[in-house]
Amino acid sequence: MSRPDDIRRRALEDLQRFEVLMIDGHFDYGNGYHGRVYLNPHQLFRYPSTIWRFAQDLIDLLPPALVAETDLVAGPLTGGALLAHTIAGLLDSRRKLTDPPKLFAPFAPDAHPGLALRALYRKQMSGRRVLLADDVRNTGQTLARCAALVREAGGTVIGTIQIYDRQEALFDLGVPNIALAEYKAPDNYPAADCPLCRSGQPVTAF
């Protein structure tokens, strides 16, 4: 087994061990859909040492050229920003003293269009190469919104990373995407047509 494969295998095991990735349950997502798989990144972020190790593992999976090109790491609040901040710090600790410091920027929630970038971070993003980070990639829409804000600020997205990829992305940003763990989740169901409900399986508490 190659080292990248071993890193991903251990990560998937840890996600289940810490009950971040919960499979074979019956989950009500609160959006009108039910399904068998639930990802709770807040379980992971309770343990700072674990998120630091996952961030280090993610960096080890990145192509060296991508690491070298990264000027700034950005992510949406809350999970993505925590991961982005940790990765920016780790990358900064590795840089040569003669190189400029690695920067960090969070995308804040906004009623419309869903995410926003404060003026301070827009200014520092201009002309810089940006690595986008998030805790999980579902459809990829959140990362696409972040990428649009980066471009509006004059930055360039050079890659996207996440702890967990559901392998259901609908948005292709045209840049490398690296996930620490991948798991193809089974289909979700409209609550009114949920076969798990029909079979009498109780909703899993989390």
Estimate the global geometry from the Cα principal axes. Answer: globular
Q: Helix amount, in percent? A: 25-40%
Structural class: alpha/beta
Mean pLDDT: 89
Q: What are the low-pLDDT stretches, counting only 5+ consecutive residues below 50?
A: none
Order of helices and strands: HEEEEHHHEHEEHEHEEEH
Largest sheet: 6 strands, mixed
Keywords:
3-stranded antiparallel β-sheet, 11 strands, 206 residues, globular, 6-stranded mixed β-sheet, alpha/beta, single chain
Descriptive account of the structure:
By secondary structure, this protein is α/β, with parallel strands linked by helices. Helix content is 38%, strand content 24%. It has eight helices and eleven strands. Strands 7-6-5-8-9-10 form a six-stranded mixed β-sheet, with helices on both faces. A three-stranded antiparallel β-sheet has the order 2-3-11, with no helix packed on it. α3 (48-61) crosses α5 (79-94). It is globular and about 65 Å long. The mean pLDDT is 89.
Q: SSE layout and pairings?
A:
Elements: H1 3-17, E1 21-22, E2 27-28, E3 33-35, E4 38-39, H2 41-45, H3 48-61, H4 64-69, E5 72-76, H5 79-94, E6 103-109, E7 115-116, H6 119-125, E8 129-137, H7 141-152, E9 156-165, E10 177-182, E11 189-190, H8 195-198
Parallel strand pairs: 5-6, 5-8, 8-9, 9-10
Antiparallel strand pairs: 1-4, 2-3, 3-11, 6-7
Helix pairs in contact: 3-5
